[in-house]
Design a protein that fits this description.
The chain is an alpha/beta fold. It contains 13 helices and 9 strands. The strands form 2 sheets. It has a 6-stranded parallel beta sheet with strand order 3-2-1-7-8-9, with helices on both faces. The structure holds 2'-O-acetyl adenosine-5-diphosphoribose. 2'-O-acetyl adenosine-5-diphosphoribose binds next to helix 2, strand 8 and helix 13.
């Protein structure tokens, strides 16, 4: 059954002119980065999103928020891309047009070799002033301090350049992803819970425009429901096999 589904998905991907790749925390899970909503290991099962990912939480305790993101950044810097990230980078190289949009704030796609990744929820290794928006590069000492640095331009606190609840998504990245979702002939979703909008609307947009939707996830969540082909399993196992089959089809002599 799974073998048939993989064969179908590989045929669809091998014939694609423009693939829209859309990833969530699940694609980095096998690298050791926790997801948000897993009942046991998910970040939001242990910490409150209101405290750690909102303006109100930052105003209430800037040091707590600063230290939490500093620890997450330090742990992300110690992990490596997994075979799922690597397979997506290979697929990009094989496909005429491939736009990758991720909800992840890590840089594992880039480290695996993916190009022009649209980071819909920002990037944990970048920082800006919470008041005036100016970019800021903290020193190692400032990163490990108990409080955020102060912006030299306006005196407000510096914060990580990640999107918090209630904030707008980076416009250029979201627009680039939305254009690809509208234009693609195949949407490939990996490790996305499908509960956080507007990002979760992008695969819906692709489906509405007639794209074939492939989902890779061990769980049968909202994205599997949307998908034409739902491959149930971990990205680090299924993606390398899928891309191997795409390579095989691409390498075969055309009739
Ligand atoms: P979630 O934690 O909501 O969902 C992670 C998904 O990954 C789930 O559907 C899991 O079943 C799946 N998963 C787990 N292990 C996997 C594996 N090895 N291979 C493939 N899939 C796997 O994470 P996101 O959908 O990324 O936003 O969450 C969306 C947003 O909510 C995040 O970007 C973050 C969070 O609050 C902000 O902070 C604004």
């Amino acid at each position: 059954m799974m073998d048939d589904q993989l064969t179908r998905a590989a045929a669809v991907l091998a014939a694609a002119r423009h693939i829209f790749g859309f990833t969530g925390a699940g694609v980095s899970a096998e690298s050791g980065v926790p997801t948000f909503r897993d009942a046991q290991t998910g970040l939001w099962s242990k910490f409150s999103p209101e405290q750690l990912a909102s303006q109100a939480g930052f105003a209430a305790d800037p040091g707590f928020v600063w230290r939490w993101y500093a620890e997450r950044l330090a742990s992300i810097q110690t992990v490596r891309p997994n075979p799922g990230h690597l397979a997506l980078a290979r697929l990009q190289a094989l496909t005429p047009a491939f736009t990758l949009a991720t909800q992840n704030i890590d840089d594992l796609h880039e480290r695996a070799g993916s190009r022009d990744v649209a980071h819909l929820h920002g990037t944990i290794a970048r920082f800006h002033c919470n008041g005036c928006g100016a970019a800021y590069a903290p020193t190692a000492g400032e990163r490990s301090a108990g409080l955020p640095p102060i912006c030299p331009l306006c005196g407000d606190y510096v914060r990580p350049s990640v999107v918090w609840f209630g904030e707008l998504l980076p416009e250029e990245e979201f627009e680039r992803a939305a254009r690809a979702a509208r234009a693609c002939d195949v949407a490939l979703i990996v490790g996305a819970g499908g509960l956080v909008y507007p990002a979760a609307h992008l695969p819906v947009l692709a489906k509405e425009r007639g794209a074939a939707v492939i989902d890779i996830n061990p769980d049968q969540g909202p994205m599997a429901m949307l998908a034409d082909i739902a491959l149930q399993g971990p990205g680090g196992v299924l993606l390398p096999e899928l891309v191997r089959r795409v390579e095989e089809i691409r390498a075969a002599p055309q009739p």
